[in-house]
Design goal:
Blueprint: H1 2-20, E1 25-26, E2 35-36, E3 39-50, H2 61-72, E4 81-90, E5 96-109, H3 112-128, E6 135-143
Antiparallel strand pairs: 1-2, 3-5, 3-6, 4-5
């Protein structure tokens, strides 16, 4: 029984080392030879804005640019990224729908103010363009400069 526990413990330690080996590393380059531990408290939120409207038209490039200028830029002055994407999803009738999408990626320090800003952007988009939802994906990320 002790032998099994010893091997189980060794396996568990090995798995943990493999699992977490990417979290910390030694940065060695000509400018900085010290130990570098990446920050673990950055948040990345990805917002997927479908461009199809219920009336069969699409959010135009002009409408999107105005939305970014009026609602996104003022809330995220430190920056964000917009990516053109193409998505698909299944509606309640099991019909596959495809639509053009704008993906907005924001990396920031998590706070109540930032959470409120993201919620405000989502709410405004839904109201302005008669959208049922905006997909939001949030995760913790490591930043290396």
């Amino acid at each position: 029984m002790r032998v099994i526990n010893k091997y189980f413990f060794a396996l568990l330690v090995t798995v943990c080392i493999i699992q977490f080996s990417g979290c910390f590393y030694l940065k060695t380059d000509s400018e900085d030879t010290g130990t570098f531990l990446p920050t673990l408290d950055e948040t990345q939120t990805e917002l997927f804005f479908g461009l199809s409207k219920p009336d069969g038209t699409s959010v135009s490039e002009y409408e999107w640019t105005k939305f970014v200028d009026d609602y996104i830029s003022p809330k995220f002055i430190d920056g964000f990224t917009v990516v053109d994407a193409h998505g698909q999803w299944m509606d309640e009738d099991n019909k596959v729908l495809k639509e053009n999408t704008k993906l907005v990626i924001i990396i920031y320090k998590r706070s109540r103010e930032m959470d409120a800003s993201i919620a405000s952007v989502i709410d405004n988009y839904k109201k302005l363009f008669q959208q049922g939802s905006v997909l939001k994906v949030t995760s913790t990320v490591n930043i290396e400069e």
